[in-house]
Amino acid sequence: MVQKIEWSRTRRDLFLKCPRAWYLRYGHQTYSSGINEFQTSRRPWDLMLRAMKEILVERLEDMREGKQWSPLLLEHQLKFSLQKQIKQTSHNISKRYFEALLRYANHRFAMLWRCRIIRQLEQRKYPCWYVLDRTESVPIGTRRIYASPDLAVLIQNRWHLVRFDMQSAPKKTSDEFEANAMVLWAKHHGGFPQREYSYRLHTIGWRRGFWHTETFQPNKQSVKQCYKLLEYDCNAMLEVHQYAHSNLALLPLANSKKTCESCSFRARCPGGENLVIARHEQTMLELAQQSASSKA
Ligand code: SF4
Fold first, then answer.
1. Ligand 1 atom closest to Cα of 253?
2. Ligand 1 center to residue 279 CA distance, Å?
3. Strand 199-207, strand 158-165: pairing
4. For residue 204, which of 167, 173, 233 has the smallest C-alpha distance?
5. 52 and 45 Cβ atoms separated by less than 8 Å
6. How confident is the model over 18-34, as pLDDT tens digits?
7. Sign (positive or negative) of CA dihedral 233, 143, 11, 40
8. Which domains does the chain carry?
9. What angle (nearest 5°) sits at the alpha carbon of residue 43, between those of residues 39 and 48?
């Protein structure tokens, strides 16, 4: 059976940080299994980001219908969503920490509502815009691609695709490639134009205390390049997947100790205890395996 590989920025990030963690998280779960062990052991901070994202989508959908949220309603919704997220995990967090997380979320929301595009939508400057579902994937060849923008806004014959990152990583060269994936998604989704020049891309992410907006103009070449890189990622994931079937113990470990510190699988991974020793043991195991197969 051909293994179906799913690509998303989150999957890619984890794969680049630790192929083993990627495999444990995505590699051997069935498509329908949804919540798994990783889900239940997410850190409270990540749950706060998830709650924010959930409420952002709800608030934008209400805004589209002309409903405004009061600060009190926002606080209530955030609290409810965070409580719901925490109930699904094994974490027991103190009331004080919970309140602190809520304050962070509220503050970020207040700042986000000052962003230009949000203000323009609130002022009803553009009549044609949609809130999209990030969990909606499109098939591209044998792959499933999760790269939906959060918003699609039609401004002067051009679709502005907007993605919100509740917590952005520092700027990197692959940002443009990842943004271009939104065009691939739109072109395969249907209902959007095929011409690359009909789009403009925006990523709005929280970094170092502010919401930063990055804007990219896609073209034929950048989208083609994005497709190639995406294929490259998927092939590398497929390789790790096949490797895991022959020997899970030899799956590449994390690049950095920092990744292990916040990893949900550290309790059952040798890298979680001591990454340097685990890497060394893995090399010995590889050598033993190579010598056994050369004798056979
Ligand atoms: S503990 Fe470290 S090496 Fe092990 S899966 Fe997690 S990130 Fe990877």
1. 3
2. 11
3. parallel
4. 167
5. no
6. 999 999 988 865 444 44
7. negative
8. 33-227 (3.90.320)
9. 95
